[in-house]
Design goal:
By secondary structure, the chain is of the alpha+beta class. The protein has helices spanning 2-13, 21-28, 32-44, 68-72, 93-102, 151-169, 222-225, 231-235, 241-262, 265-274, and strands at residues 48-52, 56-61, 84-87, 110-113, 134-141, 174-176, 180-183, 186-198, 201-212, 275-276, 281-286, 289-298, 304-307, 313-316, 320-323. The longest helix has 22 residues, at 241-262. Bound molecules: ligand BTX.
Length: 325
C-alpha cells in the first residue's frame, strides 16, 4: 500500500537510524496510534523493529527471504531468473544446476539456496556458505560461443556483480583477475564458472556466485576472517538479498546481451575500469607452474598478460594471483 511504501521510504532515508513517531505521523498524515499499528504490521511481515522513547523507531532487520516469490517480485529482466529453483539447504547449487542443465532446462534458470553445506570454490577449494547470510546462486546459460571464449563470462559476471553492489550499497568493489571481488582488500564475492561442452560445442555454462551479504565478523571461521568481508561489515547495514539478486540479474542480462551481439570488447572496457592488479608486480600460480612479472592488462579475449623480468609476455588463462608489495 501507499502508506507502507511511505513508511519504508522514511526508514530507508534514515539509513538505519531512528525515525520519530512524530515524523512518521506527519509523513503518513495519521495519528500516533495509527503509526503504531503500521509498525506492528511491518513486524508481522518479518521486519525487526526497535522502539525507543523520545527517539522513535528503527529497523534492526529486514525480512530477508530469497524464495521464488521474493526474487520474482520486482525482477526487471526479460529472461534471466524467470525459472527459479530455491532450496533452504543444499550441498552445492552448482551440482544441482549441473543436473538441471543436463536435463535441458532453459537459459536463465537460477538455483539459489539459503545455505550450502558443500559450497565449492575453484581447484577443489571450499566456499563457506553459512545460513541465510549470503547469496549462493548458480545461473545456467546456453551461449552459442566457442569454448575458448567461456572464461570471458567470468569477467562479465564480475562486472555485473560490481555494478549491482555499487548501485545498491554505494560501496566501490574492485575486481582482481579473474574472479575475485574485493572491498578494502578483502574478498566479498567469489565466482566459479563451470562448463558442459562436447567437441567444440557449449551445452551450458554454469556460473556460480557466492556473495557475502549480511555476515558479521563472527560468522566467518578463523581461517577466513582475515581475508573475507561482507556488505554488512563494510556498510554497517543489512541488505535484502532478493533485491541484490534482482539487480545482479538485470545488469548481467544487459551485459550478456551486449556480449552476444558485439563480443567481449565492450565488456573488456568496463572490466578494466573496475580492475586492480594491472600494471603491478604479481605472482600467478597456474596448474603448470608459477609466473612472476608485471601484469600489463588483459587482451581482447580476456586473457591476462604478464611480462616477466626477461621481457617475455606470458598469456595466463587461469591462475591464482597474488599482488607483490
Ligand atoms: P576460490 O577458489 O577463488 O576461492 C575459495 C577460497 O576463498 C577459499 O579457499 C577460502 O580461502 C576463501 N573463502 C571461502 N569461503 C569464503 C567466503 N564466504 N568469503 C570469502 N572468502 C571465502 C571462489 O573460489 C568461487 C566461489 C563460488 C561460490 C559459489 S556459491 C554458489 C555456487 N555453488 C557453489 O558450490 N559454488 C558457487
Amino acid at each position: 500500500s501507499e502508506i507502507r511504501r511511505k513508511l519504508l521510504e522514511a526508514f530507508r532515508d534514515a539509513k538505519g537510524g531512528y525515525v520519530s513517531g512524530q515524523k512518521i505521523s506527519e509523513l503518513l498524515g495519521c495519528s500516533r496510534t495509527a503509526v503504531w499499528k503500521h509498525i506492528e504490521e511491518l513486524r508481522k511481515e518479518g521486519y525487526e523493529l526497535e522502539a525507543i522513547r523520545k527517539k522513535g523507531y528503527r529497523i534492526v532487520k529486514m525480512p530477508d527471504k530469497i524464495s521464488d516469490n521474493e526474487i520474482r517480485l520486482g525482477l526487471e529482466t526479460n529472461r534471466l531468473g524467470h525459472d527459479i529453483y530455491y532450496y533452504d539447504q543444499v550441498d552445492s547449487t552448482q551440482t544441482i544446476a549441473q543436473e538441471l542443465a543436463n536435463k535441458g532446462v532453459k537459459e536463465g534458470t537460477i538455483v539459489v539456496a539459503d545455505e550450502q553445506t558443500g559450497g565449492r570454490g575453484r581447484m577443489a577449494r571450499t566456499w563457506y556458505s553459512p545460513k541465510e547470510t549470503g547469496i549462493w546462486m548458480s545461473l545456467i546459460l546456453r551461449p552459442n560461443i566457442p569454448i575458448q571464449h567461456t572464461p570471458q563470462l567470468t569477467l562479465l559476471t564480475a562486472v555485473a556483480i560490481v555494478q549491482a553492489i555499487e548501485e545498491i550499497s554505494g560501496l566501490s568493489p574492485v575486481i582482481k583477475w579473474p574472479n575475485d571481488i574485493l572491498i578494502n582488500g578483502k574478498k566479498v564475492v567469489g565466482i566459479l564458472t563451470e562448463l558442459q561442452a562436447e567437441a567444440d560445442r557449449v551445452h551450458a555454462v554454469i556460473i556460480g556466485m557466492g556473495i557475502n551479504v549480511n555476515q558479521n565478523q563472527d560468522h566467518f571461521p578463523d581461517h577466513i576472517k582475515e581475508i573475507a568481508t561482507s556488505l554488512y561489515i563494510e556498510k554497517g547495514k543489512y541488505f535484502t538479498r532478493a533485491e541484490i539478486i534482482q539487480k545482479i540479474l538485470l545488469s548481467f542480462e544487459r551485459l550478456y546481451d551486449q556480449f552476444l551481439k558485439d563480443g567481449f570488447k565492450p565488456i573488456k572496457l568496463l572490466w578494466e575500469s573496475y580492475a586492480i592488479s594491472l600494471k603491478q608486480m604479481i605472482t600467478a600460480r597456474t596448474l603448470s607452474g608459477t609466473i612472476r612479472g608485471k601484469a600489463i592488462g588483459i587482451n581482447d579475449e580476456g586473457v591476462l598478460l604478464v611480462q616477466t623480468e626477461e621481457g617475455e609476455v606470458k598469456h595466463i588463462y587461469s591462475a591464482d594471483i597474488e599482488i607483490s608489495k
